[in-house]
Amino acid sequence: MDIIKVSSRSRSPAVAGAIAGVMRERGRAEVQAIGAGAVNQAVKAVAIARGYLTLDGIDAICIPAFTTVEIEGKERTAIKLTVEPR
Amino acid sequence: MDIIKVSSRSRSPAVAGAIAGVMRERGRAEVQAIGAGAVNQAVKAVAIARGYLTLDGIDAICIPAFTTVEIEGKERTAIKLTVEPR
After folding, report:
1. pLDDT tens column, A22-72
2. What is the pTM for the complete model shown?
3. Are A81 and A42 within 8 A, CB to CB?
4. Which of A43, A84, B68, B69 is most exposed, with minimal Cβ within 10 Å?
5. Number of Cβ atoms within 10 Å of the Cβ of B41
6. Which residues lie across from A11 on neighbouring strands?
7. Are strands A74-85 and B3-6 parallel, antiparallel or unpaired?
8. Contact assessment for residue B66 and residue B77, using Cβ atoms and an 8 Å cutoff
9. Which of B50, B61, B64 sits opposite A47 (nearest CB)?
10. Does position B8 have pLDDT exceeding 80, yes or no?
11. Contacts with B83 (C-beta within 8 Å, 6 or more apart), sequence order
12. What is the pLDDT of residues A10-30, one digit of tens each?
């Protein structure tokens, strides 16, 4: 599954649209963020996406977890938010 | 229900312990954070709390939402994370 990567400069309504689109198509979405600014945008996006998905009768919940990603040869700790129907 | 308030200086393992304790006692917990640093600590705390609660057979999920709080007479937008069993 494609991972929705969020940065601190991502617009949360745009990310929310992506989350809602993937949820409708595939039933779940994965969002990845590194750093406080990115995690904040990602969480706001999930809150907004929940509103979009409620209109489709989907009660979306979110499962946060730590994950390790490699960026330019260095390991970084990222937050992964898995969005699923309840 | 008491709300667990998280700041950017909160230690996420300590917040995780509080979340797990409230979950065990009351079956759900509410976490509130204002600003990117605080939201980041709150999300990390939920990820850690999930690990604690798995040991108790609880599959904890999280529902992010916007909320408005008044601080020193001014309205601020906060993120509320409701933690519940799946």
Report:
1. 999 999 999 999 999 999 999 999 999 999 999 999 999 999 999 999 999
2. 0.95
3. yes
4. B68
5. 24
6. none
7. unpaired
8. yes
9. B64
10. yes
11. B19, B23, B28, B29, B30, B31, B46, B49, B60, B61, B62, B63
12. 999 999 999 999 999 999 999
B46 touches chain A (CB under 8 A): yes
B6 touches chain A (CB under 8 A): no
Which tokens go with B78? 């906060």
Query: Rounded distance, CA B26 to CA B48, Å?
Result: 19
Helical residues (DSSP H) of chain B, grouped into ranges: 12-26, 36-54
Distance from C-alpha of B62 to C-alpha of A63, rounded to nearest angstrom: 6
Interface pTM (ipTM) of the complex?
0.95
Residue matched to tokens 């509130």: B32
Q: Cβ contacts of residue B74 below 8 Å, gap of 6+? A: none
Is A44 in Cβ contact with B40 (below 8 Å)? no
